[in-house]
Amino acid sequence: MSGVGRAGFGEVADAALDELIFGVASEALLSAGLKRKDVDYVVIASSDVHDGRSNSTMTLTGATGSFRCPELRVCSDSIVALGVASAALESGLAMRVLVASWSYTAGIDLQTLEALALSPLTRDLLGDGVSAALIRSNESGRPANVEAVRVGGSNSAVAMVLRCPEAGGPALGRIAGTGWWTDPWVGPSRPNAIARAIEIATSSADRRPSEFATVVTANLHDIADDELGRLAQVDSASVHRCGPAAVDVGYAAGLFAVVEALLSHRDGWQLVVSAIGIRAQSAAAAVVVGKP
Predict the structure, then answer these.
(1) Closest Cα to residue 225, out of 214, 233, 237?
(2) CATH code for residues 173-290
(3) More confident residue, 38 or 128
(4) Of the ranges 53-57, 79-83, 164-168, which is most confident?
(5) 19 φ, ψ to 5°?
(6) Cβ-count burial 243-270 (b if 16+ within 10 Å, e if not)
(7) pLDDT > 90 in the chain, percent
(8) What's the rounded mean pLDDT across residues 174-193?
(9) pLDDT over 60 (residue 271)
(10) Are domains 3-105+153-167 and 173-290 of this chain identical in fold?
(11) ω into residue 120 within 30 of 0, thus cis?
């Protein structure tokens, strides 16, 4: 990772969507010492449903810096976008890649929005609203119990510049491996998808669970620390949650968590886990290490 920009995670960003994205993309380029013309490829993780647009990327090419530049959009967590960006670098397709993701849902009832967007084809399968959950703390102050509580949306955005070693420039950390998994729409619960995503990410990075100093996550409101620790094969005390407990940042969750991990100055390897999907059958994971 060579540069990063972020806004609104933890508070509502007071800007139009285009301005919000342009701001974090510009910040990421500035911190990497680059200009827009230096970027070879742009990868985006966004949701038309949450953006309220039929094709959000077509209307945001100026803000993301992807006008007249190769661009690819993934409809999944932004860790998947990181995986695509890493593949572009490793294949020689690009030397520098800008990855961006956002959520623009402050004040919106996400559960009602998703249910309406999916109606009528899948509404009978999923119910009238998609259940959300929030971790409640126990007496020790650590998240422990899951209760069915609606979480709120967020106006937030995050961008990151990735580069291959030959490109030169500042290095804030390294993404060593990524992985993701999606179960059937109406099938096993989220823990299975999380376990499989972690397995793929750690295998691609050639790391073992015992090597992780911290497990960082965002948006996993319905998975308690003990359960996440079990899935990652680490002690629950190693789990770190970034961002507000009752805020959903959509597809941007994974990238926010990766940035938090790399800028935390924690020693050693860190595992980042995120998940998004109707009824939460999708999960993504990344293995990162900060700058020595």
Answers:
(1) 237
(2) 3.40.47.10
(3) 38
(4) 79-83
(5) -65, -40
(6) beeebbbbbbbbbbbbbbbbeeebeebb
(7) 32
(8) 77
(9) yes
(10) yes
(11) yes
CA 98, 104, 106, 108 torsion-angle sign: negative
Q: What is the mean pLDDT of residues 220-240?
A: 88
Compute φ and ψ for 174, nearest 5 degrees. -135, 140
Q: What DSSP string describes the chain?
A: --EEEEE-TTS---S-HHHHHHHHHHHHHHHTT--GGG--EEEEE--HHHHTSSSHHHH-HHHHT-TTS-EEEESS-HHHHHHHHHHHHHTTS-SEEEEEEEEE-TT--HHHHHHHHHTTTTHHHH-SS----EEEE-TTSSEEEEE----B--EEEEEEEEE-GGG-S---EEEEEEEEEE--TTSS-HHHHHHHHHHHHHHHHT--GGGEEEEEESS-TTS-HHHHHHHHTS-GGGEEE-S-TTB--GGGHHHHHHHHHHTTT--SEEEEEEE-SGGG-EEEEEEEEE--
User: Where along the chain do its domains lie?
Assistant: 3-105+153-167, 173-290
Given the candidates 3.10.560.10, 3.40.47.10, 3.40.50.2300, 3.40.720.10, the CATH classification of the domain at 3-105+153-167 is 3.40.47.10
